[in-house]
Structure formats: C-alpha cells, structure tokens
Amino acid sequence: MNVGLLFLVGLLSLGLLTGGCSLQSNTVANQYPTKPITLIVPFAAGGSVDMMARTIEKVALRHLGQAIVVTNIPGGAATIGWNELAGAKPDGYTIGVIGMSSLLQPLYGETRYHYPTALEPFVQVISIPAIAVVRADQPWKDARDLLDYAQQHPGEIKYGHPGLGTGNHVAGEMVALSSGAHMAQVPFKGEADALAALLGGHIQLMFATPPSIKEHLKSGKVRVVGVATEQRLTDPVFSNVPTFKEQGVDVLLSFWYGFGAPKGIPEAEKSKLIAGLQAMVNDPEFKTNMEKSGMPVEYLGAQEFQQKWITDSGRLAKIVKDTGIAERIANQKK
Amino acid sequence: MDIVDMLLNGFYVSLSLSNLLACTVGVLLGTLVGVLPGIGPIGTIALLLPLSFNMNATASIIMFAGIYYGAMFGGSTTSILLNVPGEAASVITCMDGHAMAKKGRGGAALAVAAIGSFIAGTMGLIGLTFFAPMLADAALIFGPPEYFSIAVLGLIILTRLTGTSMLKSSLMAVVGIMLGTIGLDSLTGISRFSFGIDALQRGIEFSVIAMGLFGVSELLETMIQPTIKQRLQKVRFRELYPNQEEWRRSIAPIFRGGMIGFLAGLLPGPAGIISTFASYAVEKKRSKNPQEFGNGAIEGVAGPESANNAAASATMIPLLSLGLPFSAGSAILLSGFMIHGIVPGPTLINQHADLFWGLIASMYIGNVLLLIINLPLVGIFASLLKTPLNILMPIVLVVTITGAYSINNSFFDLALLIGFGILGFFMKRTGYDPAPLIIGLILGPTLETGLTQSLIIGNGNVWSFFTRPISGIILGIGLFIIIYNLSGWGGSWRKDSGY
With an 8 Å Cβ cutoff, is B344 touching chain A? Predict the structure, then answer.
C-alpha cells in the first residue's frame, strides 16, 4: 500500500461518512421521492432506538424507491435532534424518530419547538413498558412488599433512573405517588450506569425496560417486581411478573417510538411517505430483524398513532404535574 | 482445563475461512480509521451495522470487534509523525512520540507503539479469557462514591502530568472542569451555560476539543514555520526500528501500561483516554530522568499506547459478561450483537459458547494480524514524512474536520474544533499546556455525578466517602500526595523562587 492509495482509501471513507449529501434536484410532487430521505435519530449511534432506524434503513429502498439515510443528532435529552427535525423544511425529505419523551420534554420548560404540535406522528414501531427491578437477594418479592417497606422506611429505598425527567424517572415517581411511599431518586447518565449501580447494590431499585433486563433476569441476578402495562407480558421470561395494576398500584407507562416528520408536509408527499413507512414497518424482513434484537414491532397506523399522541400528551402533562417532577425541574431553573 | 478446551474450540471457530476473513477486514478497517485523525471506530461500525444483517452473526461480531480494537493500534501513527492525534486516546502520545520523530526516531516510536499494543492487547485478552465474569462482578463493587474518589485522585495526579507550572496546570484543569459543566445536566434536568444554543445543550464533546487543542493547533503551528523547516528530519531505513537501549526501556512500561489500561477498562467512562494519561503519569514518576519526558522519552510512548489497547480488551469484560456498555465504543458493539438477536450478559457464555469463544479467539488472532500489518507499515508511514508539510497538513486538516463533524453531525462542533485549535495555538505559545484541560473536561463530570449520586445514596453524609473502604483508601492516597507535594513544593519554592 503506498501513500497515495492510503489517502485515496481515506478520502473514500470520508465520502461514505458524509454520505447522504446528494445533489439537489427539482422536486416534482408526483415523482416524490426523487432523492434519499434523511432520517434524524436524536440519539447517539448504538442503542435500541438507533438500531430501529438502521433496521428500517435496510428495507427502505424496496418500499419507497429511495434510500433512507440515518443521521444521528444526539444530546440534550434528544431535544437537539427534534429541534433539527421540527425546523427542517417540510418537503418530505426529512423525517425522524419520535417518541414518548418528545411529549415529555416541553412539559419541563422552554424547548425551541413545542413538539406535540410542531411534529406530526406517522407510524408507531415499538412500545416498551417500564418495569421495576430489584436485586434478587433483596427480600421484596413483589411491588407490594417493596412499597410497604418504603412506606415504613421513608427515603430508605433509593431508585435509579437514566436522568431527571426521563420516562424511567416518571415511572418511578408515578409508583411512589400512587402508593404514597417516599423513595429517593438517584439520576444516572444512562441505563447502563444505573444498572451497574443496581447490580453492585448501591441502589435498591431501578426503573428500566425489559430488553436491558432480560438476560439478568434469566440468570437469576435480579427480580422484576412490577410491569407498567394492563396485561402481563407475553415473553415467557417476563410472563410471571405481575403488573402494577394487579398489585393495586395504578401505573401504566410504556416507552413508544415511531417515525414522524415536521408539520406541514404537502398531502401528496405525506400520503406517499406514510404508505411507504407502513409498508416498511410491516415488511417481514424488518419484523424478523426487530424481533431478533428483542424489540418486537408493535405497529400503529397514522390515525391510531396520532390519537395516542394526543391522549398521551394530555395524560403525561397531568402526571408530571401531579408527581411534582415539572415543579422540581422548574425550581432548579430559577 | 475447561477454559483452555473452550478457547481451543473458539480457535477452531474463528479460523474458519469466513471468520478469518471477517477478522482481517475488521482489523484492516480499524487500522485505517485509527490512522485517520478524528475518524473513529464508532462511526465506522454504525455505517456497517445495516450491512451485517446478511452476515453470519459470529463473523459480523468478529469484524466489529476487530474495527474497535484495531483502531487503538492505528491511533498513534499521526500522533507520532505529525503531532496530530489520530484518536482522543492517542493525545498523550503526541508529547514524546512526536518529540522522538523530530529526533529521527519516529520509526522506533511507531514500532514500539505497535509491539506494545500487541503485548498489552494480548494481556487484556488473557484477563478476559480466564477471569471475565469474576472481574465484572468485582468492578460492580465500585459505586458512585468510588467514582468520585477516583476522579479526585485523577485530578490530583494527572493535572501535573506534563510539567508546566503548577499554577498554569491547575488553571487549565479548572477551565476543563468548567467546560464540562456545559450542557443539559441529567442530574437536574436543566440546561447549564447553553445560552440558548442548541448544540451547547449536548455538552462539549471531548474528542472535538482534543482534536482542536492538539491537532488543529499543530496545523496552525506548521503554517507559521518558515518553509525550510517544513520538512521533518528524514528517517533513514536502518533507524526504523528500536535499538537495544530503546527496547530495554520500553518493556516495563508496556507491561505497566497494560495493567493500568486493563483496570481502567473495567470501569465506566472513556477508559482509553484515561488509561493513557494514567500510564504516562506513572512512567514519568518512575523514570530516573523525568525531565526527558516531553522531549522524546520512549517510555512516554510505550506505556500509554499499550494502556489503550489493554483498555480496549478490558471494556469487553463488562460488555460480554454483564451486557453493560461503559463507553460509546462498547455501546455500538452492543448493537452489533443485538441485531443478531444475541444479548450479551451473564447467560452469553453458556448460551452462545461458540460465538463467545470464537470472538475471544479471533481477538488473539486479530492482535497478531495487527502486529503483522502494522510493523511493515512503520516504514511506509515514516516515508509519509517525505511529503512536504504544506501539502500533507491541509489533507490532515480536511480529514480531521470530517471526523469531527461525523461525531454528532454538527456544524457547531466544527466551530468548536477551529476555535479550540486557535486557542490551543496561543496556549502553546504562552506555555499553557492543553493536557490538564482535557483531563478536567473528562473527569469533571465524573466528579460531579459521583458527588451528587453519593450524597443522595448516603443521605447527605459527606463522611461516607471516607468510611467506605475502597473510596477511603483512594482519597487517602490523594491526600498523601497533596501533603507530600506541598512539602516538596515548599522546598523547591525557595530554590526556584516561584514561576
């Protein structure tokens, strides 16, 4: 390999890395899409939501006639990516991953855009419930045991979550509120750090999602004391875990993610885009690949997803107010 | 022995044609992205993720891992030859590696880096092979108070790393810590010092700052050099490899670096870069001629370059046996597993024995391949210096800018890169060393998070930092160093009459 070749290879990989900057061409509505579509992922590469985007990247060409190019814009609890998405030209060439926390973030104070109205949901892809996890050598067999203990020993249970105001934190406060128990929250920088602290016995409880807990549950290191869904989970590993509801704790919370776009895309492009996304999400290859990564597809079409968007928007606003999370964050801003 | 049998079986798996090919492709790509400044393994693996759906699970994971640890091999190349770090983890290698290159010992530095990387990488692998689950559990004993104490000790030791004045180094470390507070804080849910700028909410990306302070500033430095000086000393071929004396001096630092890197890799945080700084500090402290550091001490290349490779092997331990990705690099590797429906964790070794042992065996093979690839490359890279710098440096700048952009797809990061490049240029001219700033930027957030979390967990009791045994010991060492330095400082104060 000589120097020239080395740099050629280098430049080629540059081209790959900056890929997606294609030449502008005149867009004619009925020919849409005429160039690759940018998919903004508001998280860093690696991680389950990024994987969802990359899995769709793989089947896009088949259903849309154009490639989808994933662009990771991480940081600011996903708000930087969503700002980019909400501010993008609504021409159907920029779409993004949206999720439950796009409804949560504006509730904590000023975000550049009011996502519930600035973004438009197209299809839901996954919905993962919140679960409460303790180490297996702890005495609490279920949520009732745990909450009784927490009531008798206020502040003694420390629960971990991946950041103030995240869905996991909201789940924790919902559990505390509905049982009247006082538990202290410990914020971590991501689920991995929180899980490490739980496994090491530094915190007693954590709110997580099934995919990250499954292997530890299988190996008997942790116990799941409650799941925040209506019905028990169908996955055999989790099927004997009682829901919070059956234990008299009224907590329902799932983290859902899907695809959306800035508001105001012309009808013709929008219906084509929605049809394309629908076909992609229901593509057997996409479904198998998602299944393999431990995130079975829970598809919702545009109408149902929009309905959920509106219901959850109202519901979450009430929750963050009742649990005092909004107030807590607002106080710190002063 | 059971493990040996399984490892042999792993070699059987990884020596199949397709897996061997995957390993070779992985380490080649890894070397390449390691060499190119700013472009790292994370972006590369992310790009290849969708392609790997069609590959066999074992082969694709072997390839991704190859890219990951391969990048640690290549990172030192531009650090040594051009004083432009190839990866954040090779920042410290610039100090002595480049000084060696200026003296015409660039080839020796590259060779020592490659061989040290090989030895330490393999050391890490031996640890991974025999003690993975045990070590992973042991690392969990470290909780927030321990991380806090490590950050304190790190700041105490590492701030004085490069030997400019105490005052200037401490100032830079403080600036680094201050920069580390920028952004959306996950502990309070609020945005700090972001002045309404979206990109600042993300916080300051330390690899962008490292590239600016070390890489771009060096490019500016070459710009103002007179043209005659723009040629680095020629490397004669027989001087390409280390001489006996250099070997003798490198062996111990390689093994020490390997140990340090291995331990750092077990804990959360950017283990690669932290371990290189720690190794450099240890080598400098142990050296009989500490004044040689910064002027081409081969120990300052051998130790850190070994440390980051051992760290790369060791970060696989929490990833494989607990499913916990403690760094951005291992997070993307985790995705590489997940897309094939394989979830790393305590059940991995039993459920996917072939894959687990195949992967580990492939890493032994990959390390050998990397050595075979890298040693001949030493000559080629050294001849790179024949290119006039006024042609070479603009190309390096383009690559650096591309790499910086690819981290967050952010133009703001480019402004940071250039801004800190200019700042770094003036810092060097005025005798402010940028290394403590990077240390502050990395350890500051750990310090703060650890403090807050520990106080919540310990019900606000500050003494819990001292009563927990590990944390107490670490803080004790830090206290001892401060007292020791203060007494020494008092003595030298009279001698030097200040700075």
Answer: yes
Residue of B nearest to A3 (CA): B384
Q: Considering only the beta carbons, identify the residue of B331, B338, B409 that sits closest to A294.
A: B338
Q: Judge whether A66 lies within some domain.
A: yes
At A110, which CATH number? 3.40.190.150
Domain annotation covers residue A12: no
As a whole number of angstroms, the distance between CA B385 and CA B288 comes to: 32
Give the pLDDT of residue B234. 56
Nearest-CB residue to B340 (from A48, A155, A292): A292
Contact B322 A199 (CB under 8 A): yes
Prior bond of B434 cis (ω within 30°): no
What's chain B's average pLDDT?
87
CATH number of domain containing A163: 3.40.190.10
- One domain, residues A58 and A201: no
Rounded average pLDDT over B400-404: 89
**In this predicted model, what pLDDT tens digit does every residue of B342-360 receive, in sequence order?**
888 888 888 888 999 999 9
- Judge contact between A55 and A290, C-beta under 8 A: yes
Residues of B whose CB is below 8 A from A70: 46
> Do A172 and A230 belong together in one domain?
yes
- Contacts for A104 with CB less than 8 Å, ≥ 6 apart: A165, A166, A167, A170, A316, A320
Q: Provide the pLDDT confidence category of residue A20 given band limits of 50, 70 and 90.
A: very low
Do both A167 and A311 map to the same domain?
no
Note whether A97 and A206 are same-domain residues.
Answer: no
**CA–CA distance, A201 with A137 (Å, rounded to integer):** 10
pLDDT value of position B235: 54
Which structural domain, as residue segments, surrounds residue A263? 36-128+255-321
| Closest residue of chain A to B395, computed from CA coordinates | A7
Distance CA B476, CA A4 (A): 54
Q: Could you count the other beta carbons within 10 Å of the beta carbon of residue B329?
A: 27
pLDDT band for A226, please (50, 70, 90 cuts). very high
Using the 8-state DSSP alphabet, how is residue B334 labeled? H
- Residue A222: inside a domain, yes or no? yes
Residues A122 and A191 occupy one common structural domain: no
- Please give the pLDDT value at position A109: 79
Tallying the residues shown for chain B, one arrives at 499
Residue A328 lies in a domain: no
Q: Which range scores top for mean pLDDT: A112-121, B44-53, B79-88, B102-111?
A: A112-121
Q: Which of A225, A252, A279 is the last residue of a domain?
A: A252
CA nearest to B343 within chain A: A215
- Same structural domain, A271 and A123: yes
Residue B189's pLDDT band, with cuts at 50, 70 and 90, is confident
Question: Which tokens in the block code for residue A132?
Answer: 């409460």
For A210, how many CA atoms within 13 A lie in the half-sphere containing its CB?
24
- The percentage of residues in chain A with a pLDDT greater than 70, rounded to a whole number, is 90
Q: How many domains in chain A?
A: 2
Residue of B nearest to A104 (CA): B189
Q: How far is CA B118 from the centre of its chain?
A: 15
CB contact under 8 A, B184 and A75: yes
Q: Which of A252, A285, A306 is the last residue of a domain?
A: A252
By Cβ distance, the residue of A54, A109, A293 closest to B341 is: A293
- Residue B229: predicted pLDDT: 54
Chain B residues with CB inside 8 Å of A212's CB? 323
Cα separation, B45 vs B39, whole angstroms? 11
